[in-house]
Design goal:
1 helix; disordered C terminus
C-alpha cells in the first residue's frame, strides 16, 4: 500500500506541471494573420500554454487577430515597430502568464478586448496604444513611456504606476474594479476620465514621491466605492467634473492633500455629504459647488477664477485670489485652525467662525457669528450684514488699531449681541444696536453723520469717540466708563 501511495503522488505532481512554449512572430507566410501556423517559430499557432513574443530583431511585420484566442502571455522586445490589431468582436486573453509581461509595441490597436489575467505585472514600457474597445488588466500595471488614445475603456483590477513618460489623448476612461487598489502618478501624469466602480477603494499614494494625477475631464465615484485622498501631499487635478455618490465616497486624513480644478471653462463639483481635503482652482475657470461642502483643509480660489455656491460651505482656511460667489442664505463656516484672506468683493451670506481663525488681510463680511476664536490682528473688517454675534465661549481678539466698520446700505440696522463685545476701533455708518452684558471700545468710536448708535448693556466702556451722528445709551445695574470724547454725547 505504501508503494502505491508513492506512485500516486508522483503522478499527481507530474500532471500539475504545465508545459510553456515560447513562440515568436515571424510572419513567414506574409499574410499578417495570427492564426497562420507558418507565421510563428516554432510553426504552430500559440495557445493557452504559450508565451507569445513580438521581437523586432526577428520581424516588424504587423499582426491581426481574426478570431478570439487565449494565450499564456504576450511580450514584445527589441524595438518591435509593427501594429498588432484586435478587431471589434474579438477577445484576446493572456491567461496563464507568470511574472512580468513587458509590452513596448510600435502600435497596439485595440478595437475589441485585450485581457490580462493571472499575471503578476503588466508593463507598458513604450509604444502607442489606440484603445477604442476594452483593455482589461487583472494584474499590477506599470505604464511608462507610453502614448494612449482612443475612446474605449481600461479596466484596472489592481495597482497602477504611471511613469513620467505616460501621455494620454482622446476620451478613453480608466475604470477601477474590485477591492483595494493604489495609484502612483509621477510628473503630472494625465488620463482622460476616471471612474471608481462599485466595491472598489482606490488610493492615491504618496510614495516614492508625491503623487499628482491629472484627469482631463471627469472623476466619478460609484455606489459603494471610495477615493482615498489621505496620502500626504497627493494632488488629484480635475478638468470638468467631480462626482461622488454618497458621504463615504471620499476618504481624507490630516494631510495636505488637495483636489485641483484646473479647467479653463465651466466645471462642476458635487459632494453628496462627502468630506473633502483642500480644494483649489486655477487657469481662469469657473467651479460650481452643487451641494453643501465640508473641507478639512483650505479653499483656494486662484486669480481669475470663480467659485459659486448656493449651499453651505465649511473650510479650515479661505484664500481668495479670485471670486467666491455665495447665495444669500449660504453659510460660510470656519472650523479647525486656519486663516482667512481676501474675502472682499464677493456677495456675502452669513459667516460663522467656529474654530481658530486668523485674518491675513482686510475682509468684508455679512452676518457674523463667532463661536470659536477670531483673531483679527490689525486688519479692517467691513461688516455689511445685519448681525454680529459672539456666542458663549467665543472670543474676538484684536490688535491696537484694528477697525470694524459697520457700513451697510442706507436704512440698515445692525445688531451686536454678545456676552462681552470688545473692539479696538469702530466706525458706524448705519444704525447700530448693541445688546449684551458688556460692550467696550478700547480705541475710537466714530459715528458718522446721520448714523445712530443705541448702546444697551449693563456695562459700557468707551475710550474715545467722535460723534457726528447720534449715540443713545442705557446702563442698567452696571457702569459707564468714558474716556476722551472728540464729539458730543
Amino acid at each position: 500500500m505504501g508503494r502505491l501511495l508513492v506512485v500516486l503522488v508522483l503522478l499527481c505532481g507530474t500532471s500539475a506541471q504545465a508545459v510553456t512554449t515560447q513562440i515568436t512572430w515571424t510572419n513567414g507566410s506574409a499574410d499578417g494573420q495570427f492564426g497562420t501556423a507558418s507565421n510563428w517559430n516554432p510553426a504552430q499557432v500559440p495557445d493557452s500554454d504559450d508565451e507569445v513574443f513580438f521581437n523586432g530583431s526577428v520581424s516588424n511585420a504587423s499582426c491581426n487577430f481574426p478570431t478570439s484566442v487565449t494565450v499564456g502571455n504576450i511580450h514584445s522586445a527589441n524595438g518591435y515597430t509593427g501594429t498588432v490589431t484586435v478587431p471589434v468582436g474579438v477577445t484576446v486573453t493572456a491567461a496563464n502568464g507568470t511574472g512580468l509581461s513587458v509590452l513596448a509595441f510600435g502600435t497596439f490597436q485595440i478595437n475589441g478586448t485585450l485581457a490580462f489575467v493571472n499575471t503578476a505585472t503588466v508593463a507598458f514600457n513604450g509604444g502607442t496604444y489606440v484603445l477604442n474597445g476594452f483593455l482589461d488588466i487583472d494584474a499590477d500595471w506599470q505604464a511608462g513611456f507610453v502614448s494612449m488614445s482612443g475612446s474605449g475603456h481600461l479596466k484596472a483590477h489592481k495597482n497602477i504606476s504611471f511613469g513620467g513618460g505616460f501621455q494620454s489623448s482622446g476620451t478613453w476612461t480608466l475604470e477601477m474594479y474590485g477591492g483595494a487598489q493604489t495609484i502612483y502618478a509621477a510628473s503630472n501624469s494625465q488620463i482622460n476620465h476616471l471612474t471608481i466602480m462599485p466595491g472598489s477603494t482606490t488610493k492615491l499614494v504618496d510614495t516614492p514621491q508625491v503623487t499628482h494625477l491629472r484627469v482631463k475631464y471627469d472623476v466619478r465615484i460609484d455606489t459603494n466605492a471610495a477615493l482615498d485622498l489621505s496620502g500626504n501631499g497627493v494632488t488629484l487635478a480635475v478638468g470638468a467634473l467631480f462626482a461622488p455618490s454618497n458621504a463615504t465616497s471620499v476618504i481624507v486624513g490630516a494631510t495636505n492633500a488637495r483636489i485641483l480644478f484646473e479647467g479653463a471653462g465651466n466645471q462642476t463639483c458635487y459632494a453628496l455629504g462627502a468630506t473633502f481635503p483642500s480644494v483649489e482652482t486655477t487657469n481662469g475657470g469657473t467651479v460650481q459647488l452643487m451641494d453643501p461642502m465640508v473641507l478639512t483643509g483650505r479653499l483656494l480660489v486662484g486669480a481669475g477664477t470663480t467659485v459659486t455656491t448656493d449651499d453651505n460651505l465649511t473650510v479650515a482656511s479661505l484664500d481668495l485670489g479670485g471670486t467666491l460667489t455665495r447665495g444669500p442664505t449660504s453659510i460660510l463656516r470656519f472650523e479647525g485652525t486656519g486663516t482667512a484672506s481676501s474675502l472682499g468683493g464677493s456677495p456675502l451670506g452669513p459667516t460663522v467662525f467656529a474654530g481658530s481663525t486668523s485674518l491675513m488681510s482686510d475682509i468684508t463680511v455679512g452676518d457674523v457669528t463667532i463661536e470659536g476664536q477670531l483673531d483679527a490682528l490689525a486688519r479692517t473688517i467691513t461688516a455689511v450684514g445685519n448681525n454680529w454675534t459672539v456666542a458663549a465661549g467665543g472670543s474676538f481678539a484684536r490688535a491696537s488699531g484694528q477697525l470694524v466698520s459697520f457700513a451697510g446700505p442706507v436704512g440698515q440696522q445692525v445688531t451686536i449681541a454678545s456676552t462681552n463685545a470688545a473692539f479696538a476701533d469702530v466706525d458706524v455708518e448705519t444704525t447700530l444696536n448693541v445688546m449684551g452684558n458688556r460692550f467696550s471700545i478700547g480705541g475710537l468710536l466714530h459715528v458718522t453723520s446721520g448714523s445712530v448708535t443705541n448702546l444697551q448693556a449693563p456695562d459700557l466702556s468707551l475710550a474715545a469717540a467722535t460723534i457726528e451722528g447720534r449715540v443713545d445709551w442705557t446702563v442698567t445695574g452696571g457702569t459707564l466708563t468714558l474716556g476722551e470724547a472728540g464729539g458730543c454725547f
